[in-house]
Amino acid sequence: MSDILSYVDQGEESHISEYGVEAGVFFELLKPKVMSLVIFTAIIGMMLAPGSLHPVLAFTAILCIALAAGGSGCLNMWYEADLDAKMKRTKGRPIPEGRIDKETAFQYGIALTVGSVLFMGLVINVAAAALLCFTIFFYVVVYTMWLKPRTPQNIVIGGASGAFPPMVAWASVTGDITFESFVLFLIIFMWTPPHFWALSLFGAKDYKAAGIPMLPVVAGEQSTRNHILIYTLLMVPVTFLPTILGFAGMAYFGVAAVLGVIFIGLSFTLWIKKDIIFAKRTFFYSLFYLFALFLTLGAEHLFRGVV
Question: What are phi and psi of 208, to 5 degrees?
Fold first, then answer.
C-alpha cells in the first residue's frame, strides 16, 4: 500500500511553525490512548509472572514496552497518512494536518522502536527484547503494511500485535514464554475482533472512503454482526482459563462470568436490533470489559499476596 501522505504538496501551505514542531505533536504521534491500554495490560502481565524484578528494572521494562507501542503507532500514522486524511475520525492527526512532516515522523518512530528493543535487550533480557521486536514487526509490517489493505480478516490476525505486551512483560520477569502468559495473549487476541468490528460498524463510511477492506465494507453490516456475536461467544470461555489453570481464583472467575454475560447480551442485542447505537455501546463496553478483566486479575493477585 503506497499510502504515504505528502503533507505539503506544491501550492499547499505547511502548518508547521517556523520554530519547529510543537512538543505535543510528538506525544500525539504515540497514540497515547492505545499506548495506555498496552501499558496497563503489560503491568498486569508483569505482576502475574512468577518471580520478581527490581523496581527500577520493572519500570525500565514497562517503559520499553510503552516506547515500542508508541513508536509502532507513530510508524502506523506515517505509513497510513494519506488514508488518515480521507477519514473523518483520523484526518486531524498530525501528519494529515501538516503539523509534522512525514520524514520527521518516520525517524521518530524508528528511533523509539529500535531504541526500546536495544534497551530491553541490554538491561532486561534477550527473550523479552526478541518478543518486543517481533511485536513491533507484526504491527507495522504484517498488520499495517500487508494485512490491513488486503483482507477483511485483517484485525483477526493483525490483532495479535496488541495481545503481545503481557507476554513481553512476563518474559521480562521470567526470561521465557509460558503457557500462562500465552493465555493472557489469547484473551486479548479473542477480544480484539469484536471490539474493532463494533467500531468498524459505525465507522464504515470512513473505511469505505479510504478503501480499507474492513468487514462491514466488504461483507456487509449483518455479516459483521454475525462475526461479533460468534467471536464474543468464543472469547468468553477463554477468559475462564486463568482460573482453570490456577493462576487466578474464583473471584476473577465470577467477575469474568458476569462481564462475559453482559458482553454476550450486548452482542446479541446488536445482532437482533441492527441499530448503530448498539454498535457504539458494544464498542465502549468492550473497552471497559478488557480493563475490568485485567484489573481484577491484578487486584486478586495483590490481595492473595496480602493475605
Answer: -65, -40
Domain span holding position 92: 20-176
Q: Do the Cβ atoms of 99 and 23 come closer than 8 Å?
A: no
Name the one residue in this structure whose C-alpha cell is 486524511. 85
- The mean per-residue pLDDT over the stretch 118-139 comes to 97
Taking only the tens place, the pLDDT of each residue in 35-63 is 999 999 999 999 999 998 999 999 999 99
CATH number at residue 137: 1.10.357.140
Q: For residue 81, how far is the Cα from the chain centroid?
A: 19
Give the global pTM.
0.90
Residues with Cβ within 8 Å of residue 15, at least 6 apart in sequence: 97, 98, 99
Coil, helix or strand at residue 46: helix
The rounded distance, in Å, linking the Cα atoms of 72 and 161 is 10
Q: Are residues 219 and 295 in the same domain?
A: yes
